[in-house]
Design goal:
With 112 residues, the protein is α+β, with helices and mostly antiparallel strands. The chain contains two helices and five strands. Strand 4 and strand 5 form a beta hairpin.
């Protein structure tokens, strides 16, 4: 099963910054096109088997340069299960503009 590092490396192949849990303004050069990787909740599926939620947020301003399906397929190819994708947008106060965020939820088995 893919490690956190393998997932981050796969996202880096899109040639955008990747933050682990967060990304700092000085890493962006005013460019709102990046990914955020987060490990989420761990749940017991029974019989001493666990599933970890993995969240990947694709943040972009203006045109979406990477298709949802390209992101989904790249991460699924690592062995994770795709669960859902939710689009959203937020206003950036410092520039009084809007950026879009697509939040992808995946699950991967983990050993206890």
């Amino acid at each position: 099963m893919a490690t956190d590092e393998q997932i981050i490396k796969a996202l880096e192949e899109f040639k955008l910054p990747v933050g682990n849990k967060r990304i700092y303004e000085n890493e962006l050069d005013g460019n709102y096109h990046y990914f955020i990787f987060r490990r989420g909740r761990l749940r017991d599926t029974g019989c001493a088997r666990y599933v970890r939620q993995i969240t990947i947020v694709y943040v972009y301003e203006g045109e979406q340069k990477i298709s949802d399906f390209d992101i989904i397929n790249k991460i699924k190819n690592l062995g994770l299960n795709f669960v859902s994708m939710d689009p959203d947008d937020v206003q950036v106060a410092s520039i009084n503009d809007w950026i879009d965020m697509n939040t992808f939820i995946f699950e991967r088995p983990e050993r206890g």
